[in-house]
Design goal:
The chain has one domain (about 10-230): Undecaprenyl pyrophosphate synthetase (3-Layer(aba) Sandwich), CATH 3.40.1180.10. About 40% of the residues lie in helices and about 15% in strands. The chain is built from 7 helices and 6 strands, in the order βααβαβαβααββα. Helix 2 packs parallel to helix 3. The longest helix has 24 residues, at about 75-95. It binds 3-methylbut-3-enyl trihydrogen diphosphate (2 copies) and magnesium ion (MG). One 3-methylbut-3-enyl trihydrogen diphosphate (IPE) binds near residues 19, 20, 22 and 23. One 3-methylbut-3-enyl trihydrogen diphosphate binds next to helix 1.
């Protein structure tokens, strides 16, 4: 990968990607939408390898949203089976690469139990890895995450004055997940679509016209260059060190 122009000492700690455009990629080739999802597998693995090369520590990818259940039943069924098969076929490879696999999303709502079991197996298999945490946002919605966290707080019987950002975060799908530094969305759509709403409060947003199945580590490197050209302020002045 061409690292020219990239300061490898200050790559974003947490990169989140909305893997969008699979359907359009397939339609342009006269293929079924589901073939676009299948072609996204190579994009994902190349991006993971790129993230490892760049030294990114957290990579979170949007694989299935709480709103994607609205899609035709056969597409939804394909996505459930495809994600299951991907874990079965490739989690050992990810393990060998030093990747820790995690999931973010509603577990106890609609997702087939078999897929949840595969998810739990890949979490356990890779739990000891520290190079890169790959979080697959599956049956994930940013609003659902906040609602589920509020439910957790209420169930705990927390008093109003104890409701803090830190307390809420403890009930997120992965309390250890840091805020997102860079969010990338492919396919030329300029929206968030209910991904990581809380966690992107001060993220840099990069949009690219590349459709997800065509996305490769070089595109990730381009996004990092764009990120490094930005000035982050976090509400302060002069680069955000004023707090
Ligand atoms: C993203 O690609 C993958 C999922 C949402 C599961 P799309 O399936 O949304 O592709 P387009 O946006 O229709 O091209
Ligand atoms: C967001 O893409 C969800 C995933 C990539 C998994 P969508 O294709 O579902 O988003 P909209 O419908 O274009 O906003
Ligand atoms: Mg889409």
């Amino acid at each position: 990968m061409n690292l020219e122009g990239i300061d490898t000492g200050s790559v974003p700690h947490h990169v989140a990607v909305v893997m969008d455009g699979n359907g359009r990629w397939a339609q342009r080739r006269g293929l079924k939408r589901t073939e676009g999802h299948a072609a996204g597998e190579e994009a994902l693995f190349d991006t993971v390898e790129g993230a490892l090369e760049l030294g990114i520590r957290w990579l979170t990818v949007y694989a299935f949203s709480t709103e994607n259940w609205k899609r035709p039943a056969d597409e939804v069924r394909f996505l459930m089976r495809f994600n299951e098969s991907l874990l079965v076929r490739r989690s050992h490879e990810l393990n060998d690469m030093g990747v820790r696999i995690r999931f973010a999303g509603r577990r106890n709502w609609r997702v087939p139990r078999r897929l949840i079991r595969r998810q739990d197996e890949s979490i356990a298999l890779t739990a000891h890895n520290r190079k890169l945490t790959l979080t697959i946002a599956f049956n994930y919605g940013g609003r659902a995450e906040i609602i589920d966290a509020v439910k957790g707080l209420v169930a705990e019987g927390v008093q109003p004055e104890k409701v803090t950002e830190k307390a809420l975060r403890r009930h997120f799908y992965d309390p250890e997940m840091p805020d997102v530094d860079l969010m990338v969305r492919t396919s030329g759509e300029y929206r968030i679509s209910n991904f990581l709403l809380w966690e992107i409060a001060y993220s840099e947003l990069v949009f690219t016209d590349t459709l997800w199945p065509d996305f490769r580590r070089e595109h990730l490197a381009d996004a990092i260059r764009e990120f490094q050209a930005r000035e982050r302020r976090f509400g302060g002045i002069n680069g955000g060190d004023g707090d």
